[in-house]
Amino acid sequence: MATMRIGIIGAGTIARDHLRALLALEGVEIVGVVDPVQERAMALAQLAGAPALAEESALYDRRPQAVWLCTPPDLHPDQTVRAAEAGCHVFCEKPIALDLAGADRMIAACRRAGVHLMVGQVIRYYPETLALKRLVEEGALGQPLVVFGRRLLAARPETFPAWRLDPRRSGGFAVESEVHEVDTIRWLGGEVVRVVGQVGYGWAEHPDFDTVVHGLFTLASGAAGLLEASLQSGLRRWEWGVIGHRATAYSPRRGEVRLIRLADQHEEVIPVEPVVDPATGVNRSMQAENREFLEAIRADRPPAIPGEEGRADLAVVLALLQSAREGRPVSLAPAGG
Length: 337
Ligand SMILES: NC(=O)c1ccc[n+]([C@@H]2O[C@H](COP(=O)([O-])OP(=O)(O)OC[C@H]3O[C@@H](n4cnc5c(N)ncnc54)[C@H](O)[C@@H]3O)[C@@H](O)[C@H]2O)c1
Fold this sequence. Notes:
Rossmann fold, Dihydrodipicolinate Reductase, domain 2, binds nicotinamide-adenine-dinucleotide
């Protein structure tokens, strides 16, 4: 297998996980790590045995074939366009961008340059969501009636990097985090055609940062999608599920999915492997998404989560925010419209 020359742009939290996952794959050579914060670039560069670089241009001088974009979301459009113009395939962390115009620019630039673009909606590779998807596809649940994603956390703003608390850089909690639950609902339940949203702002010292996000979605199938998310909840739950007309399946905690037959309430626990490999510390779900992108590049086929999917997720989140602002339901244009 020919070695793929890869550059990492942004050397923060998620970049470290990607790097470890990439280094555990065959046929990967890291040719440089870019971050304006020198000690971050150096720490990851050392791990990769590659140079630490302060500028993207220095990375492109080293002729990478693909880049992993692990920077704050406001930077994704311009950085993707530059990568595509340098002839690089782009793995872009979620959210794809902060607005649809940015996402469109990214998709168009990659298309023009003939390179592939994949968005890191990694939850599609979590063992729990893969088990849910299998149950839906096998028909074990019957006709899906409700698909839900619930992230109820007790978080503290002082643990967030500054860019995350700035909606002009992150898009806020709904865009930056809840694009994950939206993606999971779309992946398990199909397209969202109508959105009712409600958003709360609960951190007094960050009055324009949303901390509570609720969405009620009408799916094209007629099923409902339910999104419930909070950074200010004592419930501490992060789960996804599907309620079908014959059975319900959900992931009450990491490492298991529960399947409850409605007719007799029989409950089965389906164990799934942990996301992080306890022996190596490698995030298996990230490794799976990275493997998928490398395979797509090698086969010159669209990756499993192309830019258009990231754009569709973002469109739903933006519709939720619009609905919350305007106090009315918002309909979504059909995909491609
Ligand atoms: N898939 C997931 O589950 C997941 C989890 C966390 C974060 N993310 C996403 O990953 C991205 C990064 O998040 P993070 O938590 O790693 O943030 P972070 O703050 O830990 O890291 C971001 C890094 O980008 C660097 N940076 C800033 N400007 C840059 C530039 N012009 N060129 C190169 N580097 C630059 C910063 O110095 C920082 O080191 C965000 O889009 C975030 O939403 C995804």
